[in-house]
Give the backbone structure.
Amino acid sequence: MSGTLNKVMLIGHLGDDVKMNYFEGGNCIGRFPLATNETYTNRQTGERVSNTEWHTVVVRNKAAEVCEKYLSKGDKVYIEGRLKTRQWQGEDGNMRYTTEVQATDFTFLSNKGESAGGAQQNASSPSQNQSSNNQNTESPQQHHQASEQSPLSPDADDDLPF
C-alpha cells in the first residue's frame, strides 16, 4: 500500500479547562487533557478493571476559542484529528518528546442545555479576532459545520477518572 493515514478518533472527558496561548497576529492555540477509559472483566478473577489513558488535545484559532468558551473540566467530547510528535531540549540538556492530538473536528457531547447541545466545529476554520472571557448569548450552533451527526453515541455508563 503506497498511501498512509494519520487519523485519531476519541470520545472522552476533559481532565482540565482549556488552556489558551495567544500569539502576535491574532493566532491562538488551546490545549486540554482528554481522558479515555477502557473497561474489561479479568477472566481469572472476574474483577472489573478500568484503565484510563490521557491524551493532550491541541486546537487552533477560532476552534480553540470555541472550546475555551464552551468546554470545561469533566465535559464529554468527540475529537477527530491526527497525531503529532514534538521534540525539544529540556533545561537538563536531555531531549524531550510529546505526542499530541491535533484536532480537526470535534463535537460536544455533554448536555448543558442550549450551550453545548451537539455542536460541531471544524478546527481548520479561518482565524478571527480574539474572544474575550465574557459570556454572551452566542450559541455554538452558529459555528456548526454542515455534516451528518457522528454514528458514535455517548455511553451512559461512563466512569470518570477524576
Observations:
- The first strand starts at residue 8 and ends at 14.
